[in-house]
């Protein structure tokens, strides 16, 4: 590209600007309106209770208002005769019957809503011998059972009562076998065997397959309760830890103004010393193996060995290590020698960014606004996805035990008893099968879910872009102030935010749309990869891996390009394509400076996050494990001390990341403005530099006729 020429009218971010990329702005508004319509339709048809609450065999919710089971506790048991070999599966006990899992001619156990789960082993035949047992047994039979003392064969044939009861535990509103282990013995209700209702004794281990899944969920629930208890007694200490992390992040940013150069050079010297020690150690190992049997064998003669320690007994291995480290050491030393000036420029820009944030302190709070908007996007996407996934209607199918031409056909429970099906198949029943639908809305549910995901990526990227343009506009106002801080305009952050929304919504929508398309393609590739895991097609897997790698690189490049394009938009008010082109060419004309600044800032941010998260995490560890004697009695008593410690560590990282994201945007903005300053100005009276005196001194430049600049 062509370097920018001097413009006497340019004094920083342009205020007299016009709207850009209007078509994309209109497209975004239309898409948002469509997204709202999809949400309203989903909320109208969807019912999250289908995911949360169980149903009986008629598809009625247990314990929910407006249903026949409104006054029954939402616990569900299985009703019916046991199969040849009873196997209690989680899906078998807790969900509605689904076609395809078992033959339609062999219906699944009935499901009913009960007030309480069974707490004892009991069979229907044994219950007939005691009126109290029969009264207890009756609550697990079909509601409205007229005569429980009728013939047991008729009751079982009509599936009005289960053949047996098993001690169960209410888990996720469903009755699951209460399996427990005592001294290594698997037991259910303190019994190791049970009567299956047909006079045969069975071992409770036959229930183990389903019980394993049930116990995992039960233990997870108990773990969740203990974690919740730990949060209730330690939440205020967690908040104190997060406040400490926030103060430490702010202090680190302030200290970078004074310590950035020291930290960078000290770490580079340490890297050189570590590599030098590695070379010395390799030489010692190489010399020590001299004369030992087998140490002179070459690696090619030895071939591939699964035990990698074998290679450490070869002199050739340590010689190779020593040569590699010497090459790396030489490259680093040469880079430091020839790039020392550019490293100094990067350090000076980092220090300047700390000063800019010091003059625009409100920029540190702006990520909270971005975080809030992102939370809204996530909440809307998640709720819409749930309502869309539960928009299906209850579908009823014909189930029967004998051969029937209507088996598997759709039926309506209201008219089933008067239909021809009952005449042709007397034992057939119309039962709830699954949630589905035949309407046009149900046919396009997958397309609506895809649109929901796409809009989430688009809006989330738009929110992030809005934050980047706002921060870039504020920090550009700082750089292009000739006399800092006197010439910095009032409320630069709010002014930049207003300009971004008023003039550049279309440009932000354009950039975020491109990124959203790439991200959706990556999601589709991940889905295909998941589907192809079971397939043994190496060519397809190889091509898919290449595509995933290419689109990952493309996403990284677009994020880099968008970030710099947004800076140019904030400064010049041009459209997205022109801003991206100008930013890209400007960076390519200074590619070495870009690489050096990028690596130096990445290193400092990594060091800062490591220092903040590590120090706060160590402090939290010593406090919550009661190892600090001064506050030993103050620390709360916990079930798991790692719960608040991990919370503090994760929260500290997020806080540090938020602070450093602002700092990173500040560095990138000042860097682009610095490159523009070098191309536009020469330090003369007519074309003075806007850079700080420290940068001018570093570059051996000065403003003639402006001694105070």
From TrEMBL:
Pfam families: Choline_transpo. GO terms for cellular component: mitochondrial outer membrane; plasma membrane. It comes from the Eukaryota. The chain crosses the membrane at residues 21-43, 235-255, 262-280, 318-339, 360-382, 453-482, 503-525, 565-588, 600-624, 640-660. Signal peptide: none annotated. It is a multi-pass membrane protein. The keyword Transmembrane helix applies. Keywords: Antiport, Cell membrane, Glycoprotein, Membrane, Mitochondrion, Mitochondrion outer membrane, Phosphoprotein, Transmembrane, Transmembrane helix, Transport. It is found in: Cell membrane; Mitochondrion outer membrane. GO terms for molecular function: antiporter activity. It catalyses: choline(out) + n H(+)(in) = choline(in) + n H(+)(out); ethanolamine(out) + n H(+)(in) = ethanolamine(in) + n H(+)(out). InterPro entries: Choline_transptr-like. Choline transporter. Belongs to the CTL (choline transporter-like) family. This is Choline transporter-like protein. The lineage of its organism: Eukaryota, Metazoa, Chordata, Craniata, Vertebrata.
């Amino acid at each position: 590209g062509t370097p920018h020429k001097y413009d006497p009218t340019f004094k920083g971010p342009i205020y007299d600007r016009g709207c850009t990329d209007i078509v994309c702005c209109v497209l975004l508004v239309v898409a948002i309106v469509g997204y709202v319509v999809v949400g309203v339709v989903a909320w109208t048809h969807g019912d999250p209770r289908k995911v949360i609450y169980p149903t009986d065999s008629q598809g009625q919710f247990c314990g929910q208002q407006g249903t026949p089971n409104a006054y029954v506790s939402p616990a569900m048991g299985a009703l019916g005769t046991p199969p040849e070999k009873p196997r209690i599966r989680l899906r078998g006990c807790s969900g509605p019957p689904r076609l395809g899992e078992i033959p339609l001619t062999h219906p699944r156990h009935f499901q009913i809503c009960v007030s309480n789960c069974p707490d004892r082993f009991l069979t229907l035949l044994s219950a007939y011998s005691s009126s109290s047992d029969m009264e207890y047994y009756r609550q697990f039979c079909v509601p409205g059972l007229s005569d429980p003392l009728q013939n047991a064969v008729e009751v079982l044939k009509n599936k009005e009562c289960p053949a047996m009861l098993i001690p169960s535990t209410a888990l996720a509103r469903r009755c699951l076998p209460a399996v427990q282990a005592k001294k290594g013995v698997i037991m259910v209700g303190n019994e190791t065997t049970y009567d299956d209702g047909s006079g045969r004794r069975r071992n409770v281990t036959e229930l183990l397959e389903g019980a394993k899944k049930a116990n995992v969920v039960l233990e997870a629930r108990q773990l969740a309760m203990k974690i919740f208890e730990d949060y209730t007694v330690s939440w205020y200490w967690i908040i104190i830890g997060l406040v400490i992390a926030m103060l430490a992040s702010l202090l680190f940013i302030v200290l970078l103004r004074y310590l950035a150069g020291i930290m960078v050079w000290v770490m580079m010297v340490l890297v050189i010393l570590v590599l030098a020690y590695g070379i010395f150690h390799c030489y010692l190992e190489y010399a020590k193996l001299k004369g030992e049997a087998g140490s002179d064998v070459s690696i090619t003669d030895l071939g591939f060995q699964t035990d990698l320690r074998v290679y450490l007994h070869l002199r050739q291995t340590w010689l190779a290590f020593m040569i590699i480290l010497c090459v790396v050491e030489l490259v680093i030393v040469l880079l430091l020698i020839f790039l020392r000036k550019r490293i100094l420029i990067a350090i000076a820009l980092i220090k300047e960014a700390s000063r800019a944030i010091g003059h625009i302190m409100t920029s540190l709070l702006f990520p909270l606004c971005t975080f809030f908007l992102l939370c809204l996007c996530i909440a809307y996407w998640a709720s819409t996805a749930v309502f869309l996934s539960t928009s299906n209607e209850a579908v009823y199918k014909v189930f029967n035990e004998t051969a029937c031409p209507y088996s598997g056909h759709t039926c309506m429970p209201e008219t089933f008893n008067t239909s021809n099906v009952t005449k042709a198949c007397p034992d057939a029943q119309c039962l709830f099968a699954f949630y589905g639908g035949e309407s046009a809305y149900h046919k396009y549910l997958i397309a609506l879910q895809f649109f929901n995901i796409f809009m989430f990526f688009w809006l989330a990227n738009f929110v992030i872009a809005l934050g980047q343009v706002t921060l870039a506009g504020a920090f550009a106002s700082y750089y292009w102030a000739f006399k800092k801080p006197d010439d910095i305009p009032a409320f630069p952050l709010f002014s930049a935010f207003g300009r971004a929304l008023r003039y550049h919504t279309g440009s932000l929508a354009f950039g975020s749309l491109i990124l959203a398309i790439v991200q959706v393609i990556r999601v589709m590739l991940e889905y295909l990869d998941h589907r192809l895991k079971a397939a043994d097609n190496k060519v397809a897997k190889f091509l898919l891996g290449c595509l995933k790698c290419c689109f990952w690189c493309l996403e990284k490049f677009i994020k880099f390009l968008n970030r710099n394009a947004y800076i140019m938009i904030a400064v010049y008010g041009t459209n997205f394509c022109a801003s991206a082109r100008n930013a890209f060419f400007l960076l390519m004309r200074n590619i070495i400076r870009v690489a050096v600044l990028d690596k130096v800032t990445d290193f400092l941010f990594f060091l800062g996050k490591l220092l903040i998260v590590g120090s706060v995490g160590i402090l939290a560890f010593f406090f919550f494990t009661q190892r600090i004697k001064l506050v030993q009695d103050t620390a709360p008593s916990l079930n798991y001390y790692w719960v608040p410690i991990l919370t503090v560590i994760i929260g500290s990282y997020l806080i540090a990341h938020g602070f450093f994201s602002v700092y990173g945007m500040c560095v990138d903005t000042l860097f682009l403005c610095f490159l523009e300053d070098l191309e536009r100005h020469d330090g003369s009276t007519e074309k003075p530099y806007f850079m700080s005196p420290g940068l001018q001194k570093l570059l051996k430049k000065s403003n003639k006729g402006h001694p105070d600049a």
